[in-house]
Structure formats: C-alpha cells, structure tokens
Design goal:
39% helix, 24% strand, alpha+beta, eight-stranded mixed beta sheet
Length: 176
C-alpha cells in the first residue's frame, strides 16, 4: 500500500505519528490560526470526519498514538496545535508530548524535522510514510517507506518517544 490517505481508514491495529517541527505551514489552517492568535481559542469544530474515524478505530480496539516533541517556551503555533490536539484526544487518540528546552534535543530521537507515520507498526500490508516539509514547514509530500532499516529506525524512535513523553493532560496540568 503506497497511499497514506487510504491507509488511515484501512488500518487493522494501530497508528503512530511522530511530529518534531515547531510550526507547520498549512494553507487550510491559516484563517483558524489567525483567529486563534486573536482569541486564544479554537471556535471551529475541526475535522469532524477525522475525529469520527478516530472514534471508530478506538471503538474497535485499535491503538492510535501521537507524540510531538515540543520546544519550550511554546511557539504560538504549538499553542494552536495543542488546542487542536484536544479534539483528537476527545475522540480517543492518545496524544503525548516530549517537552524540551528550546535549542536542546532529546537523545535517542531523530533530528528536528523528522516526522513520520507508522500504520499497523509499519507492516508491509500497511506501511510507513516519511512526512517531508520545506524549511517553512510547508508540506512537500509523504513518500512510502519500504526500506526495512528505516522502518526499524521509526519503530525505535517511536519506542523512545513514548518512553520520554507525558500525556497531553499531564502536560497541560503542569501549566504549559
């Protein structure tokens, strides 16, 4: 399977997403982000189809996990991103963060800018995708990864990220 978009509804056991960028330049988010900067809150319902899919997967017993390495103090975009994560968390996705001081990076994780998806643990029937972005955080594409060593790196980084992370709720409780 080489199409990431069709992998999400077809997964059978799990997804894992690692995010490392501190800002993403997504055209579809521009107005919502600007409104967030003015008000400090998200007023739109978000991607209701995405959240419905999350609920279906969680109801079927599938594991949906995401870890974002976040530099502190948080950028405006990261505050916006975290507000959006609350929607996915409410739908059932396990959202976790690895907070680090700005300019420092956790040992054992890939370099800043290495984002990816593992669907069903990167098995050949589903797969792994590297998320590629330009220097401004604009999305360039998601090439399908077939290289076994790269998939093993993704799994090892996943395990390290999960080990270093805290739940979104715990992060927010500490006053982020």
């Amino acid at each position: 399977m080489a199409d990431l978009g069709s992998a999400f509804p077809a997964l059978t056991s799990s997804w894992f997403r690692l995010e490392t960028l501190q800002a993403y330049a997504v055209d579809e988010e521009r107005e919502e982000f600007e409104a967030f900067l003015r008000t400090g809150r998200l007023d739109s319902p978000g991607d209701e189809e995405w959240q419905a899919m999350i609920r279906r997967h969680v109801a079927a017993g599938r594991s949906l996990r995401r870890v974002h390495v976040v530099e502190e103090p948080l950028s405006d975009y990261m505050r916006y991103e975290i507000a959006g994560y609350l929607r996915n968390q409410e739908a059932g996705e396990d959202i976790r963060l690895v907070p680090v001081p700005a300019g420092e990076w956790p040992e054992g994780l890939p370099p800043l800018g290495t984002d990816y998806w593992l669907i069903d643990d990167g098995t050949p029937s589903q797969g792994a995708w590297s998320m590629e972005y330009d220097d401004a955080g604009g999305w360039l594409g998601a090439p399908y990864v077939e290289d076994h060593e790269t998939i093993e790196d993704f799994r090892r980084w996943r395990d390290t990220a999960l080990e270093l992370s805290v739940s979104l709720d715990d992060y927010l409780r500490r006053g982020a």
